[in-house]
Amino acid sequence: MGAKAGIDPELMIDTINKSSGRSFPTERFAAGPVLSRRFDFGFRMELMAKDMRLALQEAEALGLVMPTSRAAQMLYGLAMADGGAKGDVTELVKITEGWAGTEIAAARRNEG
């Protein structure tokens, strides 16, 4: 939402990481592989999807409802159906970028 509104993504991530919104993904995914567009966290999307499937199967066996995890599973499924199964988990952001019609990337500054 911030990138679509024209907010500098680096400023946005820095602000989030100094607030109660800070999380492992905002610190390790957004601040590195996503902003740099390297998508090199080092964990394939298909492996994350497998782990999520196993966790959700166990949750179901225990009678637990995990709607946020189910939503994440759906997003990974969409990303893999779009050819991203072998891609890095950080490439998941491309799905939401496509929906928003924008890209989250560090500002390219003219260094000269």
Automatic annotation (TrEMBL):
Pfam families named among the record's database cross-references: NAD_binding_11 (PF14833)
Chain segments annotated as coiled-coil in the UniProt record: none
Record InterPro entries: 6-PGluconate_DH-like_C_sf (IPR008927), 6PGD_dom2 (IPR013328), HIBADH-like_NADP-bd (IPR029154)
Domain 3-hydroxyisobutyrate dehydrogenase-like NAD-binding, residue spans: 1-95
MF terms (GO), sorted A to Z: NAD binding
UniProt-recorded name of the protein: NAD-binding of NADP-dependent 3-hydroxyisobutyrate dehydrogenase
